[in-house]
Write a structure and sequence with these properties.
Blueprint lengths: L1 H17 L9 H8 L1 H16 L6 H29 L4
Helix pairs in contact: 1-3, 1-4, 3-4
């Protein structure tokens, strides 16, 4: 279940960064947030935590979830970038 939670966080991070065009070019601070996978992952983590645990909310778990999501989203993004770049190198 924990892996499913992290994948939901990464999916939400990718979604708000790349698939929600109406969020872009409104406010400079929002554009900077959307350009940073770690930042977007942090906010995705607390959003997914609230959606999954609305009945038994615990602030310390919310914070842990936000940071775990930030690190997972950032790491996954870097791995995907590496794989994309390495597949484009001439052979």
């Amino acid at each position: 279940m924990f892996f499913l939670y992290l994948m939901a966080c990464a999916g939400l991070t990718f979604g708000i960064q790349h698939k929600v065009p109406f969020l872009h070019k409104k406010f400079s601070i929002l554009d900077r947030l959307l350009a940073c996978t770690y930042c977007a992952g942090f906010h995705s983590g607390w959003i997914v935590y609230i959606m999954a645990n609305y009945a038994e909310f615990k602030p310390n778990e919310l914070l842990i979830s936000a940071f775990a999501s930030a690190m997972f989203s950032y790491s996954l993004d870097e791995v995907v970038k590496y794989l994309e770049e390495s597949s484009q190198e001439p052979k």
